[in-house]
Amino acid sequence: MFKSESFKNGVKHAIGVPALGLGSSMFAFGVFLHSVGFDVYQSFVSTFFTFALPGQFVMAENILAGGTILNIFLAVLLTNARLYPMTVNLVPIIRHPNYSKWKYFIACHFIAVTAWFNMFAVHKTLKQENKFDYFFGLGGFLWFNSVVCTVLGYYFSSFVTKEILIGMVFLNPMYFLIMTIGNLVEKKLILAVVLAAILSPILYHIVPNWGVLISGVTAGTAGFYFFRNEKHVG
Amino acid sequence: MSADYIYIALLAASLGTYFCRAMGVISAGTLSTESPIFHWVKCVSIGVIVSVISRIVLFPSGTLEQTTSLSRIIATLSLVLIYFISKKNILLSVVSSAIILVLLNFYI
Q: In this complex, do A195 and B47 lie within 8 Å of one another by their Cβ atoms?
């Protein structure tokens, strides 16, 4: 199924800062699940099958609040809706006629912010026929590492102080932010970022559940529209 | 809360998440990386990601609620400053911002 060299290169890319940034947050998630009474199997299943952290926190909070299954489904769907445009964006990048369509339905499980940013950072340096395997190695390792870190966080929760936990939770959004800033090479993206940073907190007070989505779509559309004639770089 | 309820809820959460990804694969269809829609979707993706970050920094839920807003803002600005001073060293800037957040809340 894989060209092993490209797959290995993807794994190598993931080892280091990407795995540390995401792994630390997954570790903190494991600590959190232990503290609120989940068992280790439930913690494992959550990251194994969901692998999208904000939605996993929403799921846990809704379970603790005794929410209905439909409520949980919709709350997580809304929270993780960012994965939809990210997937629409990533699939054409890694697409190649050598791979049948069902393989994309497996690879898409590994699409999350960390893998997405890192793939975009390097895809122009890769041959088209190698991109799918590279992403499978990169995203697959990040997923595997996340599952392991969630379980480790669960087991080692009693050794983690509040200060360390807070520092670990903060690592991931800061890593996302710096990856965003590092990829700002087009004016339309810069405008989208600035508008989203301003709109999101304002909309949070008006439409708490929809604020992130409305802000993102509005900011992205405005950035694209105002600089629609700009040459595409990324 | 029963174990059955938790596992069904985990399944619902997994389906809700996978639905977003699978719909993305279907929608991507034959979309070309040269098409305007592709570039619009990239702008929207970045917009949504930054909206999430902005909300986490300014209105977090869970563990980060125990920290002050000012400390989170200072730590975030420090991240950007250290990133550019250190010639774009990601590890140094990210770890430093987390340390600054902890210092501001518990030791200063």
A: yes
Q: Tell me which chain B residues have a C-beta less than 8 angstroms from the C-beta of A22.
A: none
Torsion of CA B49, B32, B36, B45, to 10 degrees: 0
| Band (A1; pLDDT cuts 50, 70, 90) | low
Q: Where are the beta strands (DSSP E) in chain A?
A: none
**End-to-end alpha carbon distance in chain A:** 28
Which candidate, B16, B26, B25, B62, places its Cα nearest to that of A49? B16
What is the model's pLDDT at position B77?
Answer: 97
| Record: contact A21-B94, CB cut-off 8 A | yes
Contacts of A128 in chain B (CB under 8 A): none
ipTM at complex level: 0.90
- Cα distance between residue A158 and residue A164, in whole Å: 12
Q: Which two tokens stand for residue A219?
A: 């900011």
